[in-house]
Amino acid sequence: MHKKEVVPVIPSKEMVIGTAKAPVRLTVFGDYESAETRELNEVIKKVFETFKEEVNFVFRHFPLTHIHQRAHKAAEAAIAAGQEGKFWEMHQQLLENPHALGVISLKSHSREAGVVNKKFLEQLMNGDFGWYVQDDIREGLELGVREIPALFINGKMMDKPLTINRVNSAIRKELSNAKGASVKGKSRAAA
């Protein structure tokens, strides 16, 4: 009898885009049916244009299923795509198509994102990645997320409104703090 091979799942918190050792990490808890999450995604794109090497970004799932019935399954689809290294491509597909998040549409979006897994639809239907979405929700609740989108900059939740000017200002402050800490560490080592 053959044992079924257990393949470890890459959770969304490990799907990072940007410079790996960047001094600033942006973490967003959001939902693919949320217009506000889509708006914040545009802000994040602009942030990357300004702070290319200084930031990285993680998207965590926080579907508001009481108003967005398809958001949870869309989050599962993103995590499924991430298992092939296509999380960010799928993420963009889902944000660009918020009104087409049914299971068959998700399969189509996965093809557009470059996913080749022949079991993708089966995994979605079976809810194979549902627990990983639930992990994001649980962690979000533990961090104080009550509404979406929620933006954390180096682990600190930012107050709304999440405008480009406010986000850029908060990032500059974090970069300044990081440089200050680095200088203090160097001066102690020299002493």
> Which strands sit side by side, in order, in the main sheet?
1-3-2-4-5
Report the CATH superfamily. Answer: Glutaredoxin
Assign an overall shape: globular
Q: State the total count of DSSP E strands.
A: 5
Could you walk me through the main structural features you see in this protein, from its secondary elements to its overall organization?
With 191 residues, this protein is of the alpha+beta class. The protein has a single domain (19-181), classed as Glutaredoxin (3-Layer(aba) Sandwich). Helix content is 50%, strand content 12%. It has 7 helices and 5 strands, in the order ββαβαααααββα. It has a 5-stranded mixed sheet. The N and C termini lie far apart (65 Å). 35% of the residues are buried.
Brief rundown of the structure:
The protein is an alpha+beta fold and 191 residues long.
Topology summary:
Blueprint: E1 16-18, E2 24-30, H1 35-50, E3 55-61, H2 71-82, H3 87-96, H4 103-113, H5 120-126, H6 130-142, E4 150-153, E5 156-157, H7 164-190
Parallel strand pairs: 2-3
Antiparallel strand pairs: 1-3, 2-4, 4-5
Helix pairs in contact: 2-3, 2-4, 3-4, 4-5
